[in-house]
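Our preliminary data section would be incomplete without showing what the modeling component actually yields. Below, a chain of 146 amino acids is followed by its predicted structure, encoded as C-alpha cells that our downstream tools consume directly.
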Amino acid sequence: MDFKLADTFDDFIEQLYTAEDAMIEVVEIDEECSDLYISKEELEQIFERQDLCQQNLFKMAHYPMEEIEEIEWFFDRMKKCIKQIKDQHILYEAATTIHSILLLNPDMQRNDLINQELKEIAEFLENSGEPDTAFLGEDIHPVKKR
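Predicted structure:
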C-alpha cells in the first residue's frame, strides 16, 4: 500500500512541525493586573502601616527585586518592620516570607550591606524566644549555617 505524504520533498518539509509550532503559547501576565504584583509605593505603605497580613506577605515574597539598591532597600525596610512586631505568629510569618524570598532567589545579588541586614534580621529572629522562628533565623543568617 502506497501512502503519499507530499508531492515534493519541499512540500513534505513545509508540513513538518517545527519547534515553534510545538511550543505551548506562553501567556504574559500583565503585572499591573496581577494579584501578585505590588508596586514599590504599595510596599512602602505596607511597611509604614506595619500591615503584615498573609496576603501582603505573599505579595512581598513576589516583589521583583533585581537591582542591588532595591534589594538593599527591601531588607532594610523589612528589618525595621519586623523589629516592631509584637505578635509571635506574625513574626513567624514574616520570617517565613524572608526565608522564601531567599530560597526562591538563590542567585539574588548580595553585597556587604545586604549581608549585614540579613545578619541583623537573622539574629533578631534567633533571639525571638520562639523555636520555629529562631530556626528560620538560623537558616536566613548569611554566614552561619548548620
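Helices lie at 9-15, 19-22, 40-49, 54-61, 68-82, 88-104, 112-126, 131-140. Residues 88-104 form the longest helix (17 residues). Preliminary results of this kind motivate Aim 1 of the renewal.
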